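Hi there,

I know you've been waiting on this one. I reran it after we fixed the sequence typo, so this is the corrected version. Both the input and the resulting structure follow.
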Amino acid sequence: MPQLGLLHGRAWASLLGKLLRPPGAVCIGAVHSHSQVAEAVLVSQLKPHQEKSNFIIKTPKGTRDLTPQQMVVREKILDLVVSCFKRHGAKGLDTPAFELKEVLTEKYGEDSGLIYDLQDQGGELLSLRYDLTVPFARYLAMNKVKKMKRYHVGKVWRRESPTVVQGRYREFCQCDFDIAGQFDPMIPDAECLKIMCEILSGLQLGDFLIKVNDRRILDGMFAVCGVPESKFHTICSSIDKLGKMSWKDVRHEMVAKKGLAPEVADRIGDYVQCHGGVSLVEQMFQDPRLSQNKQALEGLGDLKLLFEYVTLFGIAEKTFGEKIRTTETQVFVASPQKNFLQERLKLIAELWDAGIKAELLYKNNPKLLTQLHYCENMGIPLVVIVGEQELKEGVIKLRSVASREEVAIKRENLVAEIQKRLSES
C-alpha cells in the first residue's frame, strides 16, 4: 500500500487548483499559500455572480463545523461510548450514508417528509439516511442474519426546522446499540438500560432519568379510550411529542388536526400525564379499563419483569421514573369542586395538629386531576378528598395513590385511620 507523505508547496497549489476548480473556472497559477489558492478559486467562481452582493460564505442551515477543540471533546465522548458498547460484546457495523428511498419511506410514515432525497443518479431513487436503525434492519434482512448485537456511530440527516439553541440540527451524529433476534422477555432490554446508565454516568452529566414504555400498553390504552384502530399510528406520533410540547398542544393537534373526538383525547390525557415507576405499573394493573385489555396486560407484565432485572443491575432508581423523594409528605388534601378552599384549610390544620405531614395546592380552585398528578409525581401515598357529598354525609374520602382505591371514613375517625395506615406501610 503506498504511503502518504508531505507535498511541496507548489504541488499542493497545483493539486488544490485541480480539486477546487469547477468546469469553466478561471485557471489559477501555482502559488505558495494554500489559503491563497482556495480564495482565488472561490473568487473566480463568484465573478459571474458579482451582482449578488449579499452573498455570505457560511455553512448550510442546520449544520456546523467542529473546531479542533470541539473534536477533542467529541472524540473523548465517542471513545467512552464505543468502549462501553464493546464491553457488552457488540460488533461494529457501518452502512451507506444513503439508501434506496423506498426502504426509508416504508418505515418512517408521516416523518418521511423529513428525509433528504437525492437526484436520480443512474436509475435509482435514493435518500440520505434518517437514522441508523432502518439501515440496520435492511442489513439483517439482506444478509439473512437472525441474531446480532451491534453498535454503529455515524451521521444522519433530517430535513426539519433546526433549533440550534436546543441542539437540534439537520446533520448530526447518532450512536446506536441494538440487540436483534428472539430472546426471553426483557433480558436484552435490561442490558440496554444498563448500557445507557453506564454511558451517562461515565460522561458525568449530572442526574438523569431514563423513561421506558411498551407499545402494547400504548395500543391497549388507545383501544380502551376509544381511538379508532385506523388512527393508532397517527395518534401515537402526537403522543411522542409530549417531551417537546405541552399536553394542551398535543391534545389540540390530536383533536383539531387529526380529527380525534375531544372526549377520547381527554381519556388519553388521564393516562399519559401519569408518571412513576413500578408503583405506576401496579396501579395500571388495577385500572378498571386497562385491566380488561389483553395487550395492555401483556405489556404491563413485561414492564414489571424489566423492573426486577434493572433492580438486580442496580439501576432501578435511574429508570421507571423512580424519583428520590425530596419531601416526607404523607397526606395530600384535595377537593374535586370549586369554592372548597376553606374546607381544605380546616382539614389540613386538623392533620397538622395531629402531627401528620400534609400538603395542599396554593390555589382556590385546582382541578382534581392536577392535584392527583401532583401526588403521583411527588410520591405522596395518601389523599384525603372533601366535596359537597362528603360534607352532607359527614365523611372524608381516603384514597391510596398507588392502588387508586377510595374508602369513605367518618370525619371523626379520619386521623386515627390515617395514622393506622401510615404505621402499617
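Quick highlight: Residues 68-87 form the longest helix (20 residues).

Best,
R. S.
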